[in-house]
Structure formats: structure tokens, C-alpha cells
Amino acid sequence: MDRREMLKGVLKGTAGGLMLAAAGNTVFAAEDAMHQHAGHQHSPASGKKNQGLIDAAADSVKKGQACLQHCIESLGQGDKELGKCAMAVNDMIAACVAIEQLANYNSPHLAKMARVAMDICRDCEDECRKFEKKHEVCKDSADSCAACFNECKKIAA
Is 51-156 in CATH node 3.30.1330.80? Predict the structure, then answer.
């Protein structure tokens, strides 16, 4: 083995070792962050301050994505009646992702965003209700929008 091959082997071993050390540090940093505020820990059962809004927004995103996929498929098959629904649900997904994130961190902008999200959820619900008898995903999305609207209302007040 010449020096060049030996140096390559050492460098590969060093790079692998550095990657392993970095991964270990990430795990330990996450564990330290969890224990950093031992007096302020919350058990999973206790939930967060805005847990109802977080759950409602996440549900709206999930059901909205299914609705949007349905709208896109329908549009692709030439059915243009769901075009406005697709636009409304797209807006709703964006708003609910934002409200979920802000609620998770109890942002000082949460109440303002909740007022905006209420309008967007109401528009999406109204549009989806037009098709709820025809398409189950539209009904599910409309129902989740109504629930998110009600949770936003608690925060926006």
C-alpha cells in the first residue's frame, strides 16, 4: 500500500467518523433540549395550549389534500365544475399549514392569522358544500373547514 492509498483510507475513516459523531451529537442535542426545562415539561397527555386548533388545522390540511387531488383528477377528465373548489381548497391548505405552525409555537401573530384563516376556511367550506352530496371528499373537507373555523374563532376573539 502506498502513501496515497493509505491517506485515502484514513480520510474515508475520518469522514465516516465525523458523520457518526455529528449524528450522535444531533441525538444528544435533541435529548438535551427535551430535558433542558425539566420543570416545564408537559406530558403527551397534557397537550399544548392551542391543541384544538392545531388538530383542526392538521385535519383540514389532510382532508383538503384529498379534496384537491379529487378536484385535479376531475379537472383532468374535463369536469370543470370543481375548478373554483380546487382554488378554494388550495388557499385553505396554505392557511391551515400556517395557522398550525403559528399555533404550535403560540406566535404573537396567531390571533391575526386566525381571523384570516377563518375567512379562507369559510370560503372553502362554502365551495365544498356545493358538491358534498356528490363527492364524499368534498363533504369531509367542508366539515373539517367548519371545525377549523370554530377553533380559529376561539383564538381570534
Answer: no
| C-alpha to C-alpha distance for 157 and 151, rounded to whole angstroms | 10
Residue 106: burial class (beta carbons within 10 Å; 0-12, 13-18, 19+): exposed
- The answer to whether 110 touches 50, Cβ cutoff 8 Å, is yes
Q: State the Cα–Cα distance between residues 70 and 93, nearest whole angstrom.
A: 14
In tens, the pLDDT along 105-139 reads 999 999 999 999 999 999 999 999 999 999 999 99
Grid cell for residue 130: 356545493
The domain locations on the chain are 3-38, 51-156
Q: Whole-model pTM?
A: 0.70
Say if residues 93 and 65 touch (Cβ distance below 8 Å). Answer: yes
